[in-house]
């Protein structure tokens, strides 16, 4: 039976993980794209053999995972390398996502995909809903600084490398505003409203499907 699929995205520090934790408490399965990617490229991960054969031994760390610092530099310097690496990892991510979706319990599934908008072509036909966790840049900077100690400039560089707030909002089916001044209770109540809506839509899909 086809599952109802919700993609949750947002910029760094916008509150995606916080929001996903709220849905998890209602027993919604959360599939974390970053965690899958880390597992695939971590020690013994399924992408490691291909990474070593294409990029050489230097691309592999002492722990037999991907040498992230080395690959980050390579990708930064050469867009071709980024495409090659994506060509290895993306099909594996899709495979893992499909497996996790098939074994998910509950009426619908949430995919936590930080870079959803950056690869929208890949996801737009797959997802029933694109939900954007929206936050002002100034608030993103404060939150990321508080947790990492990075400089304002360093955080802004990450923000600028991601899709803009406008680009995200342009493709959103639903928006969860989690900017300055939003309390945990307000966030919880907005998430619950969407949970009820998605349960209904998921049930409709299962009846029609
Ligand atoms: N409404 C809020 N008010 C204050 N702090 C918040 C709020 N929502 C989230 N935070 C805090 O902001 C930080 C970032 O939140 P979270 O980790 O959920 O974001 P994220 O979008 O998953 O970030 P990343 O993309 O970097 O993983 C956390 O320390 C979290 O506790």
TrEMBL record:
Listed pathway(s): Cofactor biosynthesis; coenzyme A biosynthesis; CoA from (R)-pantothenate: step 5/5
Residues reported in the UniProt entry to bind ATP: 13-18
InterPro entries, A to Z: Depp_CoAkinase, P-loop_NTPase
Catalytic activity: 3'-dephospho-CoA + ATP = ADP + CoA + H(+)
Annotated PROSITE patterns: DPCK (PS51219)
One GO molecular-function entry: dephospho-CoA kinase activity
Keyword Transcription: no
E.C. code: 2.7.1.24
Membrane spanning residue stretches: none
Location(s) in or outside the cell: Cytoplasm
Keyword annotations: ATP-binding, Coenzyme A biosynthesis, Cytoplasm, Kinase, Nucleotide-binding, Transferase
Function per UniProt: Catalyzes the phosphorylation of the 3'-hydroxyl group of dephosphocoenzyme A to form coenzyme A.
Similarity annotation: Belongs to the CoaE family.
Matches recorded under NCBIfam families: dephospho-CoA kinase
Designated name of the protein: Dephospho-CoA kinase
Protein species of origin: Advenella mandrilli
Gene name tied to this protein: coaE
